[in-house]
């Protein structure tokens, strides 16, 4: 009688052995980005250099994280089986008047990104100060499409090629 013992073991470790950890300098900030490994999303810790006094800006933080996703994984990350499916050009900008609170505008429509690439972006931003207060990532493209709220769930991390769940949006930002 066959026994279901779960998925076949992966030959890819998806762990970074011998990871060097150094204390960040005042111009550096530890970040967590989600990369694809063995058909799932796994968190990887990195350290990024930031301009003095600019770490509290949500759009800037999102831009730094997006830049990390656009970078090819390091040799150590590649050897461990990590990859990034996020491809440029892709930038982030501030919300427009009337956008819901916490909106980030991408230079491409979120739905035009590959599902796994969008999952990488959403999961990376969801654990950062770039997310809305509820942990929802509110994204829109450059056009007039309405922003949508996305959540990073265990299901998304396990199956990033699936459609991402959307969520109710926060109230619109006050007009300035």
Architecture overview:
The chain is an alpha+beta fold and 176 residues long. The protein is built from 4 helices and 7 strands. It has helices at residues 58-70, 75-79, 115-126, 154-158; strands spanning 28-37, 40-49, 92-93, 103-106, 137-140, 148-150, 166-167. The strands form 2 sheets. The chain has a 5-stranded mixed β-sheet with strand order 3-4-5-6-7, covered by helices on one side. A hairpin with a 2-residue loop joins β1 (28-37) and β2. α1 crosses α3. The longest helix has 13 residues, at 58-70. It is globular. The N and C termini lie far apart (68 Å). The model is unreliable at 2-10 (pLDDT under 50).
Question: How many helical elements?
Answer: 4
Q: What is the arithmetic mean of pLDDT?
A: 82
Percent of residues in beta strands?
15-25%
Low-confidence stretches: 2-10
Output the helix-strand order: EEHHEEHEEHE
User: How many E-type strands?
Assistant: 7
| Coarse shape | globular
Determine the fraction of residues in helical runs and give it as a percent range. Answer: 10-25%
**How many strands, which pairing sense, and closed or not: the largest β-sheet?**
5 strands, mixed
Helix vs. strand class: alpha+beta
Strand order of the largest sheet: 3-4-5-6-7
Question: What is the C-alpha radius of gyration, as a whole number of Å?
Answer: 17 Å
Distance between the termini: 68 Å
């Amino acid at each position: 009688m066959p026994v279901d013992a779960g998925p076949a073991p992966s030959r890819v470790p998806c762990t970074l052995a011998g990871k060097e950890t150094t204390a960040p300098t005042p111009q550096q900030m530890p970040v967590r980005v989600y990369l694809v490994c063995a058909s799932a999303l796994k968190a990887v810790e990195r350290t990024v250099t930031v301009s003095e006094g600019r770490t509290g800006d949500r759009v800037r933080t999102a831009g730094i994280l997006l830049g990390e996703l656009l970078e090819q994984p390091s040799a150590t990350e590649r050897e461990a089986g990590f990859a990034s499916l996020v491809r440029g050009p892709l930038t982030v900008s501030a919300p427009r008047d009337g956008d819901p609170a916490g909106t980030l505008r991408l230079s491409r429509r979120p739905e035009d990104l590959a599902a796994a690439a969008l999952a990488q972006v959403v999961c990376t931003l969801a654990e950062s100060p770039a997310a809305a207060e509820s942990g929802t990532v509110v994204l829109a493209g450059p056009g007039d499409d309405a922003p949508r709220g996305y959540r990073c769930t265990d299901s998304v991390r396990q199956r990033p090629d699936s459609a991402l769940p959307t969520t109710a949006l926060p109230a619109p930002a006050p007009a300035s």
